[in-house]
Amino acid sequence: MQDLFSNLIPALPEQETLAEGAVLLRGEALSHERDLLSALAQITARAAFRNMVTPGGFTMSVAMTNCGPLGWVSDRSGYRYSPVDPLTGENWPTMPECFLKLAQDAAAKAGYQNFTPDACLINRYEPKNKLSLHQDKDEKSPEHPIVSVSLGLPATFQFGGLKRTDPVLKYALQHGDVVVWGGPSRLYYHGITPLKDGEHPLLGRTRINLTFRKAA
Ligand code: MD6
Ligand code: FE
User: Fold this and answer.
1) Distance 90 CA to ligand 1 centre (A)
2) How far is CA 128 from CA 9, 55, 131, in A?
3) What is the pTM of this model?
């Protein structure tokens, strides 16, 4: 059947450059999906998803947790990386081997050798949730890239420039897609538009995003 339609629906390229330093690796995480999702369930059993509060006092619609030596946290006093989950007072769960391998393999494919992430921020989107345009600038090692893994419902990723007012391009991110992002575009503004409702066979009405960083 696939042959019947392959001339009507052109396949998207396996690798696409979004900007200098930023590469979309389509389907890169697909072969690991079951391992990734079972590791995720173990993490969230210990460090539950929660809606953090911004320094300005707004509750984020996207729910978050972390694994690895450092986790990204936000509250009324600001954004920072912390070894401790403020909800439990315990360290964040260890970064699973399958997470680390995926992140390092993807970084290497994109030309970033020796990526040694010490933080993995895990975002959970439900329909209508969005992430406003922002820069990732809380990391002390911006010479390292960020590796971002999309699982579950598709999302529209907005990708701009160094200024908030720069024009933004939009990209569809599907289950299994990985974006590796660094170098000249490491500090570009980006965001996720309100998630469209749908049903994913493994994740239901949810999108999960894993972002691996070298934070320290
Ligand atoms: C998301 N991602 O995809 C949100 N940040 O749900 C990010 O904010 C992000 O994908 C830095 C680098 C890659 C990203
Ligand atoms: Fe970001």
Assistant:
1) 26
2) 28, 22, 10
3) 0.94
